[in-house]
Amino acid sequence: MAIHPVIMCGGAGTRLWPVSNQACPKQFHRLVSDKSVFQETVLRFHGQPGFHPQPVIISNAAYAGLIEDQLAAIGVTPGAILLEPEGRNTAAVAAVAARHLAAMDETALGLLVPSDHFIGRPDAFIDAVREAASAAADGYIATFGIAPGRPETGFGYIQAGERLAGRLQRVAAFKEKPDAATAAGYLASGRYSWNAGIFLFRPETMLTELGHYAPGVLDGASRALAAARTVGARIFLDPAAFAATPSISIDYAVMEHTAHAAVLAPLDCAWNDIGTWTAVAAVSARTATPAPVEIDSSGCLVHVPEGLLVALVGVEDLIVAADGNRLLITRKDRAQDVGAVVKALKDSGRKDWL
Amino acid sequence: MAIHPVIMCGGAGTRLWPVSNQACPKQFHRLVSDKSVFQETVLRFHGQPGFHPQPVIISNAAYAGLIEDQLAAIGVTPGAILLEPEGRNTAAVAAVAARHLAAMDETALGLLVPSDHFIGRPDAFIDAVREAASAAADGYIATFGIAPGRPETGFGYIQAGERLAGRLQRVAAFKEKPDAATAAGYLASGRYSWNAGIFLFRPETMLTELGHYAPGVLDGASRALAAARTVGARIFLDPAAFAATPSISIDYAVMEHTAHAAVLAPLDCAWNDIGTWTAVAAVSARTATPAPVEIDSSGCLVHVPEGLLVALVGVEDLIVAADGNRLLITRKDRAQDVGAVVKALKDSGRKDWL
């Protein structure tokens, strides 16, 4: 009963502009180490006993070349590269992945994971996935609840219910991003954890639940896969069928409704969504080359192409990020607003800079 | 009795790093308009009745090509380009200039001016030079006292004495950069003005005063010019003779001692020494192309090469200056410390970045 990593890498993180951009989004960049975040995600599972050595990749067709190049660079052969003509949210992704896995290996477990997160203690994470495998085999869709380190208002939460075994518990409720007071209450109660957006399941379980709660998604995704065009490892989903598939998250479509949701919590694996430059700054082991010159400056993140010398004089807690002919300067406490730059560029028709 | 502009452009302003650098210092950059500061200085006099149409340029030999290119671009032919093998301060410059002019035109007046200052009201400046010409013809070395707009501690001051005529007064004293309390007293008294480092004189007057108060400078500079090598408009001062010339400012060498110092004050011509990025920000009419994207940001100066898009999120009063593979970020109230970057690079042997 191998666990098949299904790595989602079709998104574009606008809050990490300009490094993350349409041509090469966040996950394909060396944000925190000398490998890309996508490569780090793939290698997290590669060679681990119990995990299938050929991951399934699901992404936008625009990134097929990037994906193949980055996999080749780390010596990993994909099981398949499922390519969406456009993003239709995570329920469609889960449906395509479950359909693909079910056809490939009836005994498989699918592990649906984002490719753009940092995990500082990968062994703890792998152990948790293994622990959750029995529940998944028993027909649960297992989620992973990150031990909350602070009353964060930027994440969704999972409320744990009845204990199943070990750290596995039924899900009492999924909670959307809370306000500060609610988040503080969640933290104090000990019953809530951060929703990392990771799912472990038998393909049949996922297909059945989608059939109950999101039949339109299941139908559209199934037809898009059935009519797909295959070129080597690339599986191009049928554009017409996929366009007709409802765009909805797997949380809204299935997880908030199913009686088969479990959560493994607390998971303490130094998880970080690296969703903003401030989050990147917190975990990056990358250093700019040449080293910046800092005069009376501290706490700044400098993420610029090699060969650009940055000098900082009398500044604190700034983010300096550059890529090609684009340069961002912001404060660490404003990094969540970088998406506004992308919006402003879009709104003013300056699409070449996205 | 033509006034011959003698434009000094051999210096390098390290506080405007990285745009101002060894290869191309401050005065040769388009800091405040679509012309370089040097070009603006040349054009300030060009075509003005009473001013010789062919300025004398005095600079470091390293910048001969830059000077010729920038003069050609504005259609100005130099009278001479006097080239120093190394900088020996302003007394040597004044001596070379006076010696050169005396040989060229006995009736000339020499107007020794820095090339790296901004003058917002050039007509007011030209009028002041014309007004000072009679005093210069009478044997004074006329200086120009800028009406002080604030108790600035970064400039030297000129204390006015007995009135000669109009705005022309004898100099009572030259004062070095004062502390804040002293500067406030200067401002309140109405007798002090900023020393702009501009001098108008008959060449014979300057040579006579140098002979009295700085005979070593006069001797070294005279021999460097006598032994100079001429190639077209370029006059290369003799390296050995020039190296033996004492390095001292014209203020210390002559102005503080001579009985023939006059000051035209107050001169109100929107003068700015553009010595720091903050000063540049105050007068620049230059806009970055493409226009920066500013989200909740204000008061920032963006001085970067054309084609670099800068986005600012939640920052105020920053200086962002880039040139080639170098980027500076500082605050407006720390701009006077940018020279520390150049010093740090020198001290760590990273001379390629200067």
Give an overview in words.
The structure is a homodimer of 354-residue chains. Chain A is globular and about 60 Å long. The longest helix of chain A has 16 residues, at 89-104. The first copy, chain A, has a five-stranded mixed barrel. In chain A, strands 15-17-18 form a three-stranded mixed beta sheet, with helices on one face. Chain A has a two-stranded antiparallel sheet with strand order 5-13. In chain A, a hairpin with a 2-residue loop joins β7 (157-165) and β8 (168-175). By secondary structure, chain A is α/β, with parallel strands linked by helices. Chain A has eleven helices and 18 strands. In chain A, α3 packs across α6, α3 (89-104) packs across α7 (215-226) and α6 (203-213) packs across α7 (215-226). Chain A has two domains: 3-272, Alpha-Beta Complex (Spore Coat Polysaccharide Biosynthesis Protein SpsA, Chain A), CATH 3.90.550.10; 287-353, no CATH class. The model of chain A has no long low-confidence stretch (mean pLDDT 96). Chain A binds chain B through residues 17-18, 290, 293, 295-296, 304, 307-315, 318, 320, 322, 325-331, 333-335, 337-338, 340-341, 344-345, 350, 353, and chain B through 17-18, 290, 293, 295-296, 304, 307-315, 318, 320, 322, 325-331, 333-335, 337-338, 340-341, 344-345, 350, 353.
Topology:
Two copies of one chain form a homodimer.
Chain A: E1 3-8, H1 37-45, E2 56-60, H2 64-73, E3 80-84, H3 89-104, E4 109-114, E5 118-119, H4 122-137, E6 141-146, E7 157-165, E8 168-175, H5 180-189, E9 192-201, H6 203-213, H7 215-226, E10 229-231, E11 234-236, H8 239-243, H9 250-255, E12 261-267, E13 271-272, H10 277-283, E14 293-295, E15 301-303, E16 309-313, E17 318-323, E18 326-331, H11 339-347
Parallel strand pairs in A: 1-2, 1-4, 2-3, 3-11, 6-12, 14-16, 15-17
Antiparallel strand pairs in A: 4-9, 5-13, 6-9, 7-8, 7-9, 8-12, 10-11, 17-18
Helix pairs in contact in A: 3-6, 3-7, 6-7
